[in-house]
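Teaching assistant's notes for section 4

Start the section by putting this record on the projector. Ask students to predict, before seeing the second block, whether Phospholipid-binding protein will look compact or extended. Collect guesses on the board.
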Amino acid sequence: MKISADFTVVPDDFAKAAAPEYRTGGVPVISFPFYIDEVSPDAQYLHWTFTDPDSIPVCGFEWIHWTVANLPIDALMFDFNDAHALAIPPDFSRQMASMIPEAVQGRNSSASKFVGRENDPAVTMRYNGPQPPDKDHDYYLHVYATKNPLPGLNQGFWMNELLHKLREAGETPDQAGIFLTGKA
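Reveal the predicted structure now:
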């Protein structure tokens, strides 16, 4: 599997410099587009995490920005420029529930009791864009593909639940990732 994007620095619309209309509660909520290519032919479902390891010195833990599980591959549109690449469109996080109701999104770090600043599901259970407070951060998008959906994951799952379900799946998931930079 290969993951790619048309950028290496997360564009302003999806991050700290997002316009007010692209925010909810001050948080950027418009997810960025990316591509998934060369997925195992046996794979039927996609799952992903988007995290900020550089947040550890700032807040004491790796910030979770977005998690998705049980997205049927056949529900996605192919990139017309590359017949092999699956395209995740911009703003997919907010549109996914109406487009693909069987797929679910997990909680991000805004839902943490340690952060405690937000309880709006539009912020806590969707994409939460990069807003590094101290310097540019590197973010990691990790995509997994499995033959079967992961059981027991409901809207608002925690990232560790996703990782446990991947381990328990009885298969080695196809997987790949990409580092992206978020500007301070």
